[in-house]
Design brief:
25% of the residues are buried. The protein contains 18 helices and 26 strands. The protein folds into 5 domains: 13-146, Beta-Lactamase; 221-308; 309-462, Heat Shock Protein 90 (2-Layer Sandwich); 472-597, Rossmann fold; 600-701, 3-Layer(aba) Sandwich (Rossmann fold), CATH 3.40.50.2300. By secondary structure, it is α/β, with parallel strands linked by helices. Strands 8, 9, 10, 11, 12, 13 and 14 form a 7-stranded mixed sheet that branches. Strands 1-5-4-3-2 form a 5-stranded antiparallel sheet. Strands 17-16-18-19-20 form a 5-stranded parallel sheet, with helices on both faces. Helix 2 (56-68) crosses helix 16 (613-625), helix 5 packs antiparallel against helix 6 (272-293) and helix 8 packs antiparallel against helix 10. Strand 6 (296-297) and strand 7 form a beta hairpin.
């Protein structure tokens, strides 16, 4: 008997192939559904975690007054119901302790550097946050959101069954159709295909001897393409070598830079201004390192740029002041050159959305260009000035140097074009225009031969961020506590506060040079005195183990604190201030930050327009506690009845989402601005970035009362 296996029929092969396709498609379908299931679950948790935690601080601050007032439960329930409806939650409640969290959520999952914890179960996600005021815990705010609309496990199994059935029927139908076709038409189709191929091969062989396979022109085109590829490969290799060198240089700079920064931190005797100058220089070196380390070399090979750098709302004045200080040091040997900064008082507090390192690089190049246009034999002036007009910040860099011709002016923004500079790359103004365009601004140059050049940069003004204190409001009887390790800062505050002290506008001033001295004094302060204090704290305390923020965590009066620090531009510190209700200014602003003293009956007053009764009650409670002239209105129509008697100096806060639906808060703010009101703020739960194009707003703040 023969052991050879009988050949597998064509039908059998078709059936085997169909079965394999069915199994493969089934597995792919199951994996796709499982991936969708996991992605939906992850996406739901991620989006709702941000959604649930975004307004927690504001909501807790709204709840606190209800615990301090008599009708606690009614006020609390009103706020909780409003939160539930606004955020479409399944449950909002106040629980006495974490033991009241439903068992199906397990233990709270705390995230780094936040005071709340996250909850997650098969049916809901949520957040629990403590309700704290003055060191007293009133309980915990618990918010839960249902997973409705998310692919559940049962639904997932149902979809798997459906996929199997649909795939099975489809494969079976395809198999029987293919078998039927092969039985009836297969032989005819194969015969036709074979005849066609034979004819094509015969025709090709008979004509191959009559003409060449390629024409001469085709060979030339091929040679040119090969040569182009070789050149492109050489350029790519050269750029890769430059990038490798750049990254190596960046690596080698890091160690001496770290040693320099460590040494600066230990120089207590160095004045704050000098420490700031050195730290700024170190930061610029860090920026250069980042550009070198992460550089993307452009096609020309002569420009290194860091891709996709994030834009951020920045205060411009400290950046330019520090840069001018650096330039005075850089060009101190050219005694014939003077650097001037010209601006009005109302232009000192202007914010723009920029990249800080690129802005400093652009301004540095513009100032260097101005210096290089000056003669060594004559007195030269480089002046930086700016003002605000029609929602734009106008920055001008002017020199009285050699100037440029009309022909040169027409080419100043072209790449690689330079005038009168040996070794110039022609990238300064080209890079400046690229950056300013990215910031939604404009740049232009005007010049006259032998008279000088002016470069104008226009940037859209954006509202002040919520962490920034545009003014310091003091009511009569306020006691000021100042902590700074720099004696010169104490002298600045003394000169500014002494007239107010002599006139009885404030009660007293306490000065401390160390954190320990402040804490020792705080231990003697009575509770009734604490509410009358305003803290002006330095953040960086040399030779101490804690910062100004660490001290305030021990004291607890965040909303009565303004941090006065050169670290104002650090994002983690900004976020900390927003979270705790503190404010912050740059240290060099101590000399000019507006100080406003108010008392009941003062013509200066505050107004809130908000449809939320609880929010208005919270602001009214805080204003009464601090003896502030304050009025609140539930709608624009109600405010209009008092508009004619409202001074133009009034500080007005408007909610963006007014319940009547007639007009949005930002729209009515523009109407008030056109009428002459200038101190306009949005008090809203939305992100400040959503309104940064509205230059007429002084700022976008949370719904917390603004007084500190």
């Amino acid at each position: 008997m023969s052991n050879t296996k009988s050949p597998v029929s064509f039908k059998a092969k078709i059936i085997q192939l169909s079965t394999r396709i069915f199994l493969l498609m089934g597995v792919i379908g199951l994996l796709a559904i499982y991936a969708i299931y996991k992605f939906q679950d992850w996406d739901f948790q991620s989006r709702n975690r941000d959604y649930l935690t975004r307004n927690v601080e504001t909501q807790i601050n709204r709840l606190i007054p209800t615990f301090l007032l008599q009708e606690q439960w009614a006020g609390t329930q009103m706020i909780l119901e409003e939160i539930r409806l606004d955020e479409d939650l399944s449950l909002v409640s106040v629980i006495p302790d974490l033991g009241e969290v439903p068992v199906e959520f397990g233990e709270c999952q705390y995230e780094l550097d936040v005071d709340y914890c996250l909850l997650s179960s098969a049916e809901e996600v949520g957040v629990v946050a403590p309700i704290l005021e003055g060191g007293v815990n009133f309980g915990y705010l618990m918010k839960l959101k249902s997973r409705k609309g998310v692919l559940s496990t049962a639904r997932f199994l149902q979809l798997m069954y459906i996929v199997f059935i649909v795939l099975g029927l489809s494969i079976l139908l395809l198999t029987f159709s293919l078998l039927r076709y092969v039985n009836k038409e297969g032989k005819s189709f194969l015969k036709t295909l074979t005849s066609w191929l034979a004819a094509a091969l015969s025709k090709s062989s008979s004509s191959s001897s009559k003409r060449p396979l390629f024409k001469i022109s085709e060979m030339n085109d091929l040679a040119e393409q090969i040569e182009s590829l070789i050149v492109e490969h050489e350029d790519s290799t050269r750029r890769a070598i430059v990038a490798d060198i750049a990254r190596q240089v960046a690596h080698d700079i890091r160690s001496p830079l770290a040693a320099l920064e460590m040494s600066v931190r230990d120089l207590r005797a160095l004045p704050e201004e000098k420490r700031l100058l050195i730290r700024s220089a170190c930061e610029e070196i860090h920026d250069i390192i980042n550009v070198l380390r992460e550089s993307k070399v452009e096609n020309s090979g002569d420009s290194l740029r860091l891709a996709n750098e994030a834009l951020k709302v920045e205060l411009l004045l400290p950046l330019v002041e520090t840069l001018l200080s650096e330039k005075r040091m850089q060009y101190k040997n050219r005694e014939n050159i003077k650097f001037k900064l010209s601006l009005k008082d109302d232009a000192r507090i202007l914010f723009a959305r920029i990249n800080q390192s690129d802005f400093k690089r652009v301004m540095s190049n513009l100032i260097n260009n101005a210096v290089e246009a000056l003669s060594d034999d004559e007195q030269g002036v480089v002046q930086v000035s700016w003002h605000e007009e029609n929602g734009f910040i106008h920055i001008e860099v002017t020199d009285n140097g050699t100037g440029m011709s009309t022909e040169a002016l027409s080419m100043v923004f072209e790449r690689g074009v330079t005038f009168g500079k040996s070794g110039g790359t022609g990238l300064g103004l080209f890079h400046a225009k690229e950056c300013v365009d990215q910031w939604s601004g404009r740049i232009d140059v005007s010049s006259e031969v032998a008279k000088g050049t002016t470069v104008r940069v226009l940037l859209p003004r954006v509202p002040e961020p919520s962490w920034f204190a545009s003014e310091i409001v003091l009511h009569k009887g306020k006691k000021i506590v100042i902590l700074d390790d720099d004696p010169s800062v104490h002298l600045i505050w003394k000169s500014r506060l002494k007239p107010m002290l002599d006139e009885g506008l404030i009660d007293s001033v306490f000065n401390f040079h160390t954190g320990k001295a402040l804490l020792d004094w705080w231990a003697t302060v009575t509770e009734d005195l604490g509410s009358e204090l305003l803290f002006l704290l330095d953040y960086e305390l040399i030779n101490e183990n804690y910062s100004g923020m660490d001290l305030m965590k021990k004291i607890g009066l965040y909303n009565q604190t303004v941090f006065v620090t050169s670290h104002y531009d650090e994002e983690p510190l900004q976020q900390e201030c927003v979270r705790h209700g503190s404010r912050m200014i740059a240290k060099n602003m101590a000399a000019f930050i507006p100080l406003k003293s108010i008392e009941r009956g003062d013509v200066s007053q505050y107004v809130l327009i908000d449809d939320s009764k609880v929010t208005r009650m919270s602001w009214r409670f805080r204003a009464q506690a601090q003896n502030i002239n304050f009025q609140d209105y539930s709608s624009v129509d109600e405010f209009k009845t008092k508009l004619s008697s409202t001074p133009k100096s009034t500080v007005i806060y408007i909610d963006s989402d007014l319940g009547d639906g007639k007009v949005r808060g930002e729209e009515y703010a523009k109407v008030l601005f056109d009428m002459g009101f200038e101190h306009l703020y949005l008090a809203t739960g939305h992100k400040p970035e959503d309104f940064e194009q509205l230059g007429f707003l002084r700022g976008v703040v949370a719904k917390d009362p603004p007084w500190i």
